[in-house]
Structure formats: C-alpha cells, structure tokens
Write a structure and sequence with these properties.
Layout: H1 2-19, E1 22-24, H2 48-69, H3 76-82, H4 85-113, H5 116-145, H6 155-158, H7 164-205, E2 207-223, E3 226-237, E4 240-249, E5 261-266, E6 272-276
Antiparallel strand pairs: 1-4, 2-3, 2-5, 3-4, 5-6
Length: 296
C-alpha cells in the first residue's frame, strides 16, 4: 500500500512538472491551454458519466434544503422526512461525495481539454444543473399535488411560512447559472480543442527552435494560487533572431529564471507555441515565496 501511494505521489509530481510552467502566445488566465505530451485532442464524451453522476448527487443533496427549508415538499409528511436528522445526516454525507465527484469532473476536464475555463464550466454545470433539477422536480410535484393552490410570487412577502415560491426563485437562480454555463461550454470546448490541435500539429510538423527566456515580468496577479507573468523569448529561425511574447502561468516553486532554455515551435502560418525544455535542466527561482500569493 505504501509503495502504491508513493508511486501515485511521484506520478502526480511528474504531471505537475510536465505541465508547469504553461505558456501561451495567444491567450491568458483561464483560457491558456495545455496538451500533455503523448495526449490527443480532448473529447467531451468521457466526461459525461462523471458530469451526470455529480449532477445527480447534487440533486439528492439539494432535496433536503429545498424540501425541508424552502417549502418545496409536496406534503407535510415528506417535509418531515426531509427534515429528519437521519435524512439530514445522509444529505451531509452525500454533499461530501458530491464535492469529491465534482472535483473529479474538474480534474478530468483539465486532463481532456487542458484549460481551467472549460473545467470550471463543467464543474459549474454539475452543481447548478443538479440543484436546478431537484428544485424543478419538487416544484412540479408540489403544485400538482394541490392543483387548487395558485402560484403567486407575492406569497414570498405575505406568507407566514416559507412558501414554495421562494424555493422556486432560488431554483430559478441555479437554473440561470446552469444555463449560462451550458451556453458558454460549446464555444469554450471548441476554443480549447483548436488550441490543442495547434499544439499537436506543431509538435508533429512544426519547426522546433531553441529559445532563451530574456524577459520575465510578474503581473502581480494569480489564477488560484498560480502566479501570472508576461515573458519574452528569443530564438533564431534561418539565421535571423526573433522574439516572441507570451503569457506564462506557473506555480511559485516553478518560476524559470531569465536565461532558461525553452522550446519554440512555429510554422509558416504564423502559429507559435512555447514550452519548457525539460531536458535542458531548467533553473527555477530559488525563493519559492517570492511569487506566492499573500495570505492577506
């Protein structure tokens, strides 16, 4: 067991070393895209089982607050059941499972598309979609169980108890959130796939040049805990020196120093990709706290 755990840790560290720092000559922040060596352009199909599972778990978890707290239980008996301590305890356990599964959706989205923006949209869709779905189901069940009761949003202000209209508004908010993520997802996936296709093509057919990091400018911003930089890389093509500017995202302990050797891939279409030369023995900033985000 210990050997297996150590092996997984080393594998995780190796993936970390392969993907950071991440460079992009076209995009910045969450739109920066990577393609791990040996990986193909990402596909959405492998993510669907994880996405649906996470959404289902969020639906089950959300049934307790929507039904017991927001008045969306169709009968008093079901409301009491959803508010029972055992049910609440099960919902809390499911919440942790849902969070873990959503983390799996996020990490697998990164593996497929190499982009935090796409991964964030998949994770958002699983959460908001699941909660919107359970709100819609409970609202429909509640209204059909008592067809004589009108649906009136004014009840939010006038009802002496928590009315289902309040739950409907909360559910609609999650539905809007899910709809926005759903509408943005296809374009984001297409963008990530185009970037990965460019990287794949440049690795297979492009001109590979040895580059030197000549300028490193910290933007004083972070994506999560990863510092963001703008860099300049000098390289030579057909005896003529050239300079390419790029955005760089990395971890605080993986900031290459000026003079580090990089690989510049380019073609006659003007497409350029920059990545770290792992075989050159890159030198990183020894002060690992220099670019770490402040706690304040």
């Amino acid at each position: 067991m210990r050997d297996a755990a150590e092996g997984q840790q080393k594998h995780g560290q190796q993936e970390h070393f392969e993907t950071l720092p991440l460079f992009s000559t076209t995009d910045k922040n969450g739109r920066m895209t990577m393609l791990r060596p040996g990986h193909r352009v990402g596909r959405a199909a492998p993510l669907m089982p994880w996405l649906l599972t996470a959404a289902a778990l969020w639906s089950l978890t959300g049934s307790v607050p929507f039904g017991a707290l927001l008045g969306m239980a169709p009968t008093p008996a079901i409301s009491m059941l959803l508010g029972h301590p055992v049910t609440v305890g099960v919902a809390v356990l499911l919440l942790f499972v849902a969070i873990g599964t959503t983390g799996g959706v996020y990490s697998r989205s990164i593996e497929q598309f190499g982009q935090t923006r796409v991964a964030g949209l998949f994770a958002t869709l699983s959460i908001a979609g699941g909660l919107a779905a359970v709100a819609g189901i409970l609202l429909f069940w509640t209204l059909t169980s008592d067809v004589s009761r009108p649906f009136d949003l004014e009840a939010i202000a006038t009802s002496p108890t928590v009315p289902p209209e309040l739950g409907a508004v909360v559910g609609a908010s999650f539905a809007l959130w899910a709809a926005i993520a759903f509408l943005r997802l296809p374009g984001s996936i297409a963008h990530a796939r185009r970037r990965q296709a460019d990287i794949e093509r440049l690795r297979e057919e492009g001109l590979s040049c040895t580059g030197t990091l000549t300028a490193l400018n910290f933007t004083n911003s972070w994506l999560f805990n990863f510092p963001i930089f703008t860099v300049e890389v000098n390289y030579i093509v057909d005896g003529a020196p050239r300079v390419v500017s790029a955005h760089m995202r990395t971890s605080a302990d993986r900031v290459p120093v000026v003079g580090s050797i990089l690989i510049v891939l380019t073609d006659n279409r003007g497409t350029t990709h920059v990545e770290l030369d792992l075989e050159s023995g890159a030198t990183f900033e020894p002060d690992v706290g220099k670019y770490a985000p402040s706690d304040g």
